[in-house]
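Example S7 (structure tokens).
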């Protein structure tokens, strides 16, 4: 039989962390029955693609757990809380939580969908939480970043301008002419960006700006 490689479904490995054995068993049962999802044992840790964390609320212990997962596994997290305060949402996002699924709405299908979405690089937030997150980002831009000439990407307007012209194929002299700067100043801007953001070279800096959506 000939197998079409393009139709091969990648198995997503999920690690489940829950506050009690009964909840752990229930969530594991949901995911264990899902096509394309394989559970990773906590007793014999294996590389995981997604972590699923069930919690009553964002306590200090839960935040510490999320930070450990971020630091040790570096995988996206699906958080299933009984409740989450809007003030805790930003902390959760900083800990690589990409999907928040309220426990009351955590059906088998929605848990599976959230895990597969997270593994593919996507995210999912309830509309109320998404709106709050957007407001927090807008507030941070207005009150913290903009007064210091920064963007949420970590780039200044001048840096964005230089990178935009670089992406259009202009060399240092042409960028300097367009932005009324000296060539030395343009080189300092590029050097500052690559060093501060740990970027390898000019193409890497342009790629970073493109991914950040600023050019």
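Recovered sequence:
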């Amino acid at each position: 039989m000939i197998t079409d490689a393009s139709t091969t479904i990648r198995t997503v490995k999920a690690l489940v962390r829950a506050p009690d054995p009964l909840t752990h068993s229930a969530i594991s049962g949901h995911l264990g029955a899902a096509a394309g999802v394989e559970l990773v044992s906590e007793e014999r840790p294996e590389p995981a693609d997604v972590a699923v964390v069930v919690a009553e609320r964002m306590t200090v212990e839960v935040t510490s757990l999320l930070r450990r997962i971020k630091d040790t596994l570096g995988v996206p997290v699906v958080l299933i809380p009984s409740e989450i305060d809007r003030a805790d949402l930003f902390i959760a996002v900083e800990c690589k939580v990409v999907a928040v699924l309220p426990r009351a709405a955590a059906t088998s299908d929605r848990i599976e969908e959230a895990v597969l979405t997270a593994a593919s690089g996507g995210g999912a937030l309830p509309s109320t939480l998404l709106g709050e997150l957007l407001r927090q980002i807008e507030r941070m831009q207005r009150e913290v970043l903009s007064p210091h000439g920064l963007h949420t990407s970590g780039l200044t307007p001048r840096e964005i301008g230089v990178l935009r012209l670089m992406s259009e194929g202009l060399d240092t002299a042409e960028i300097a002419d367009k932005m009324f700067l000296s060539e030395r100043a343009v080189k300092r801007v590029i050097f500052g960006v690559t060093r501060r953001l740990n970027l390898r070279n000019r193409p890497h800096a342009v790629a970073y700006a493109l991914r950040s959506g600023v050019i």
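Notes on this example. The domain at 145-212 is CATH 1.10.10.10 (Arc Repressor Mutant, subunit A).
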